[in-house]
Amino acid sequence: MTTYVGRAALNRTLFAALLAVVALVIGTLVVRAPLLGVAMVVGTVGLVGGFEAWYTARLEKIALVSLGLLLLGYTFLDRGFAHVGVAPLFVGEMVLLLGFAAMLTSGGFGVALRSPLLKLMLVFAAFGMLQTIPYVPKYGIDALRDAVIWGYCVFSFIVVILTLRTGWTAKVAESYAVWLPRLIIWLPVAYILQRQLGDKIPPFPGSSVPLLQIKAGDMAVHLAGAGAFLLLGLPQRLLPGRAKAMLPVKEWGWWLFWLVGVVMVAIATRAGLLAIIGTIGVVFLLRPASQWGKLALIGLSIAAVFFALDLAGVNVQTGLDLGGNGGRQLSVEQLVANFQGIFQETGQVTLDGTRTWRLDWWNKIIDYTFFGEYFWTGKGFGINLAADDGFSGTWFDALRNPHNGHLTVLARAGVPGLVLWMLLHSWFAASMLGAYFRTRRSGNDVQARLFLWVLAYWVAFMINASFDVFLEGPQQGIWFWSLVGYGIVLLETERRRRTGARQQVLR
Fold first, then answer.
1. For 305, how many CA atoms within 13 A lie in the half-sphere containing its CB?
2. Model confidence pLDDT, tens digit, residues 132-155
3. What is the tens place of the pLDDT at every residue in 33-68?
4. CA 387 to CA 403: how far, in whole Å?
5. Which of 5, 70, 72, 403 ranks highest by number of CB atoms within 10 Å?
6. Which residues, other chains included, contact 187 with Cβ-Cβ below 8 Å and sequence gap of 6+?
7. Number of C-beta neighbours around residue 483 at 10 A
């Protein structure tokens, strides 16, 4: 009885806090965008009365659905969707507050105490907090903005606790399967639209960023995850009835759009190209599939068109600034140069300049951490690394962090922070790989494929994060930590199945 009363009191307190946040947002919108503010007032008044009566019992599902919609928004609109809201409370922070409230009231923290990965994540977050709090008085909101590379790990806890509480482990994967065709078709179309329309695309009220703004690297990572999902045949296994109606004709269309998108990002970004190769390579090495024949045939068809145009002396001028560095042409030469630029200089200024600039900055970070005064602490979260390291007058001088998320952790949290970061993710990858082999041997084919998909998708994030300011933003940072959380959900589900089976044998 005491527990129930205490939980009810906590629920009322959290509900009051959420209402206060909504009131703050409405007040800000009334000042910034009066019409939108009035609309929110009307909508809130109509919803609050009915919401309070049943929100406690359904808050966990509401939070998970909200997070799913948030991830869809990031995938389909990318940076443009990340700016929905009013600074400093954007849509990602709103969902974080909702998810955190649901997590607090769920009573599912026993999972966090049981999972070694979540325990290690807590240690990493605690160390990151120690490297952030001292800098908040000096740098203010910049310190909190820089801290999201570790702070967004809260989404892993939200996903693990709420998914296990609701029993939606399978539903999460099924929802991804439902949205997969739309994602594959939309991404290349959206990428062309934003390059053609540019600033003509309207922003969210109060924002200066067009509502549709997709980075090539972000698009590459999601195409990599989608390609792995298709290669593993997960749509057919998760949605057997619906997949039978869609296959095989529509699957060819999916692969066609997928490969068109891959060609676009391969020309626009070397990191994205490497992320796709790495992800598909993981699937190929661990689980060769019969679908490789289809993928190879479509890929060869597109390659044949490119080489035919090349032999005819025709370069397809896209008219698009595909790489954000002056407009690259859609040609075999550009594709080969991008691949070559991963490993060595190419003679193209737009490729070699960023490569040299990155390496110089990375070497400096390694010098003042591993061999310098910032070995134990790093420079902390808050300082502008580009300005402090002497690189603010070169490529992409508006950035605060090096084009490498791992070195961002090193520069800001020192060698101990990097060790915790690498230990956490090495443990995660090893756990996913071990669980994949265990479930495959036990005959649980669908779950084995899900383990492999999450691992391959994670590889795409880690590769692209090695060459871009990627995990330091909400649209990919939240996605990344949510994916890690879902991987831990699969691990916990598999652990429960194994321990349950052992208990039945003992009886």
1. 10
2. 999 999 999 999 999 999 999 999
3. 555 555 555 555 445 444 444 455 588 899 999 999
4. 14
5. 70
6. 214, 219, 222, 223, 257, 261
7. 20
